[in-house]
Amino acid sequence: MTTRQEIVEPHAAAACWRALTLLAEAVRGHGAPIRRCSLLIGDAPAVCLDSLTPPAGDGWRISLCLDGESASNGPPAGAGESRYRLDDLIVLRRLTDSTLPSDAAALLEIYLPYCMAPVHARRVRRSFTVSHFAQSLDGRIATDLGDSRWIGCTENLVHAHRMRALCDGILIGARTLRTDHPALTVRHAEGSDPIRIVVGGGVDVDIDCLARAGPGRILLIGEGKEPASPQVERLALPTENGRIGTTAILRELYRRDILSVYIEGGAATTSAFLAENNIDVLQLHISPLIIGPGISSFQKPAIRSVAESVRFDSHVYRSVGDGMLFVGRAAS
Questions:
Q1: pTM of this prediction?
Q2: What confidence category does residue 69 fall into, taking pLDDT thresholds of 50, 70 and 90?
Q3: Whole-number Å distance between alpha carbons of 50 and 239
Q4: Edge-to-edge strands of the sheet including 218-221?
Q5: CATH 3.40.430.10 region(s) of the chain?
Q6: Most buried pick, 102, 127, 195, 255, via CB within 10 A?
Q7: 94 in Cβ contact with 84 (< 8 Å)
Q8: CATH fold for domain 126-330
């Protein structure tokens, strides 16, 4: 049997990612409230929900307290156990010294919060949302002609695919579909493909690029003709002033058991969710380049004073490749 000491750091990172995907799956399938959980990271990862006692076995032992739960209510951390507390969905606080190798600890601290997304979705009875952009220093996600390759670095691409693997659905607007012809599948990380969701587009939406990329479900939100393929489903929702409310979208997705959604743009779609306070976590990968005239990350009405700007209660910065990842929770 392989012991923890015999697992070199690269293997520890791979084992950590397997444990995280296992945890996300377990949390998603657990309908009851969760206040604490623990996991074993090693060659045979294991998860235990509603317990601060990690599963037995050879590996690294991790335990987590969720919002409102005090670590003092449970047993003291055991020898070699790393204990964390998750506050406000994104702030992961280490309560004990970490025993994990640095690469694995970094993975855990970035992605463990998103494994708990179904807990938040069930509290608010709508899908949990994470949005992501790669942008330049001057806030551009593409040139005026729509070129965006490659604003983000390789490490950010891997991050995006890990987020896809942890979420039930990935959502874009029809304009992004027409411009980028994305696959929206998981290719640069271990994990399952999310349900691919396209908002708007009417009868003109062309999903050939999605259909060619894989056999997974495709959900079209908006008016239009009924799809001929059983792979594709049309969801018509009421509109107001020609737009579908984002709250209605997230509540309907929740009813369809899509508990977490990764929003990959474009600017108009993401801005609509942000304006209606329906982005739970905002991720911005800031690349060390300046584009000049181009497409801005967000589209929102002009404001008269800085006091009217979107503020973030909780936020962290993480180094990702040659750029910086901003992760924040917008103030209500």
A1: 0.93
A2: low
A3: 41
A4: 232-235, 218-221, 195-199, 169-173, 260-263, 128-135, 281-286, 323-330, 312-320
A5: 126-330
A6: 127
A7: yes
A8: Dihydrofolate Reductase, subunit A (3.40.430)
